[in-house]
Amino acid sequence: MSDKLVNGTCNGNGDASNKKCNGTRKEVRVWCDGCYDMVHFGHANSLRQAKALGDKVIVGIHTDEEITKHKGPPVFTEEERVKMVKGIKWVDEVVLGAPYVTTLEVLDQNNCDFCVHGDDITMTAEGVDTYHLVKSANRYKEVKRTAGVSTTDLVGRMLLLTRNHFRQGSAEYDIEKEGSSNMGQDSTAKSPWTGCSQFLPTTQKIIQFSDGKSPNPGDKIVYVAGAFDLFHVGHLDFLEKASKLGDYLIVGLHTDPVVNSYKGSNYPIMNLHERVLSVLACKFVNEVVIGAPYCVTEELLDHFKIDVVCHGRTPISLEDGKIDPYAVPKTRAIFELLDSGNDMTTERIVERIISHRLEYERRNQAKEKKEIEAFEALQRQKQTQKAG
Predict the structure, then answer these.
(1) What is the spatial distance between Cα 334 and Cα 326, in angstroms, rounded to a whole number?
(2) Could you tell me the CA-to-CA distances from 23 to 11, 29, 280 in Å, in that order?
(3) Rounded-to-integer distance, Cα 275 and Cα 260, Å
(4) Which of 67, 194, 224, 346 could pair with 184 as two cysteines, CB 3.0-4.6 Å apart?
(5) Which of 137-141, 354-358, 359-363 has the highest mean pLDDT?
(6) pTM of whole model > 0.90?
(7) Closest CA to 333 of 364, 298, 308
């Protein structure tokens, strides 16, 4: 158990319930672990809830080898996954090499009081609940899983590359009724956890993700804009560099139709509301403009009192084929091109997925089968308890 304190010292006899030790509250360290592959706002929301249960959140990440053994090949490398988790604003420490089955030893080694996970089930290749040890020791707490998003679902969107998820107008949030039946992407997907469900954006969720802080007088304000689709390590490195140009970073997110107009094909993979939460979860970001204009206008610069506007090394599409979207900040001499040093793009992620299509299809099929079996067993257990 952790003997660390907030504002004080402890004799080592504290517990994990925020009780006082020698008149001072003991620091509560919370353990979360997982693959954290294709990190999305669902992962971030779980870590946000975990943070609310303690003082520090320590995240254990499984190795590529462990994930491949129990689940199938990860989309991202260990280094990429570690970097993404470190970039989430509610994470305090990251540990690579966490065992797939969470043990009491790993909690003690990292001075963690208890483990937190979402209310879905994760299992080993043999079908064993990965949290059974900490559950039996009463060192496990559950938070609500974010409905409407999962890594399986995002992989499915990229594999399908249809227009099922890219809707506009009254059908914007409709669920596709036909299509792949094995990617957790449509109405026939059976898994209660990674099957397709409607993501319902709310103002409360945005407030929970936002730090709610306004810039201080005299702060240098930096503005960047883009799609930030499938938020990834390239975005993260770019935003970290942009944040260092000033004191307060604002990210403008383009609407889905605007992104589609310059990206084409089936982009964006994630809709505007999903992209808002993904960017807000980044520790380098202070504020997000939802549905920012493609052309950076005088009004936008004046309203937010922007001092610097920057863009990455990716090509800049002209509006209507002739208007430079950064003409105004260039005229004001406040425009900068930034090289993040990372060549990852959303398109490269899609290429990774498609090149391993059969592997990911098999992975998702196996995952769904295990989840159905576990869900049915859980339901039987509940019925037996009721009958008893």
Answers:
(1) 10
(2) 11, 19, 37
(3) 14
(4) 194
(5) 137-141
(6) no
(7) 308
